[in-house]
Specification:
This protein is of the alpha/beta class. It has eleven helices and ten strands. It starts with 6 loop residues before the first strand and ends in a 15-residue tail after the last helix. Bound molecules: NADP nicotinamide-adenine-dinucleotide phosphate (NAP). NADP nicotinamide-adenine-dinucleotide phosphate is lined by residues 22-24, 48, 111, 148-149, 170, 196-200, 221, 223, 238-243, 246, 249-250.
Length: 283
């Protein structure tokens, strides 16, 4: 991995850039548009949004105004939880395309699985939603399809019942949240794993002398070390900032390498407040 333009090849041959610009919690229209313009200027070619973020319209505007042809960008969106089910999924993917003012998405994900204990048939619900994405993929509106936050039971259910295997699983990953079983199962089925919220442990690491030593050795910030950890695990890494300086800093991670010892240490870190968040518990 040598540059921001490096890609992985998904199981269907589509190229996905290894670093993506995230847009979660950015709802101010100007911040969304300016963030995308700054990210593209810094070299990012991969943008991640979601129906749930409420910013697809502004993401679309950023794409139009960023100065790079749409075809050179990799754009992802995700299905809101309230839009599960075959009919709603089909209808609301088109609504996403309309809001973004795009003819196709490079990747579309089921944002969260329906989980056990929701009162319905969670397995069938997820299969029905997936079938809608398979059809939209066949029709060319979605160049690749995948899942997000699918832990082992949800993943197995899709794998056993799908016609088209998901190409991506996007999950929370950073030191302290390593989800080895989900990563291994995703890889076993040829999915590229994407990492969200890679910078979550930043504050918890500020006083850590081993991490400070890593930063000093490489002349990098904690954010850059965390993003590098993610890349060296082979994850497509998504990161977000609304500040141009940080957008540039977060992309400046291709000129150093963490040692095996550094990686092992970061893999082993546990945080009392971060290592067992509710949102990825095996449901
Ligand atoms: N599939 C899912 O369920 C899911 C869930 C969460 C996120 N995601 C996706 O993954 C993307 C990345 O996750 P995330 O938004 O949590 O991003 P992140 O990159 O892990 O963290 C972003 C936070 O760190 C700050 N920050 C960014 N760069 C920094 C730097 N160099 N130094 C200090 N602070 C810095 C940002 O603040 P400023 O903006 O103020 O700089 C922001 O508060 C999301 O934007 C979204 O697209 C997906």
């Amino acid at each position: 991995m040598e540059s921001l333009n490096d890609t992985y090849t998904l199981s269907n041959g589509v190229e996905i850039p290894v670093l993506g610009y995230g847009t979660w919690q950015v709802t101010d229209p100007n911040e969304v548009v300016e963030g995308i313009i700054a990210a593209v200027k810094a070299g990012y070619r991969h943008i991640d949004t979601a129906q749930m973020y409420g910013n697809e319209e502004y993401v679309g505007k950023g794409i139009k105004e960023c100065g790079v042809p749409r075809e050179e960008l990799f754009v992802t969106s995700k299905l809101n939880n309230k839009n599960h089910g075959y009919d709603k999924a089909r209808k609301t993917v088109q609504e996403s395309l309309d809001r973004l003012d795009l003819d196709y998405l490079d990747l579309f994900l089921i944002h969260w699985p329906v989980v056990k204990g929701n009162g319905g048939d969670w397995k069938q619900d997820n299969i029905d939603t997936w079938r809608a994405l398979e059809e939209l993929y066949d029709e060319g509106k979605l160049k690749a399809i995948g899942i997000s936050n699918f832990a082992v039971p949800h993943l197995n259910n899709i794998v056993e019942n799908c016609r088209i295997m998901p190409m991506v699983n996007q999950i929370r990953l950073h030191p302290g949240v390593t989800q080895e079983d989900t990563v291994a199962l995703s890889h076993k089925h040829n999915m590229v794993v994407e990492a969200w919220s890679p910078l979550s442990p930043m504050e918890n690491m500020e006083e850590n002398t081993k991490v400070q030593a890593m930063c000093a050795e490489h002349g990098k910030s904690i954010a850059q070390v965390l993003l590098r950890w993610s890349l060296q695990h082979g994850f497509v890494t998504l990161t977000k900032s609304v500040h141009e300086k940080r957008i540039i800093e977060n992309a400046d991670i291709f000129d150093f390498e963490l040692s095996i010892g550094d990686m092992d240490y970061l893999d082993s870190i546990k945080f009392d407040d971060l290592s067992k968040p509710d949102d990825f518990e095996d449901r």
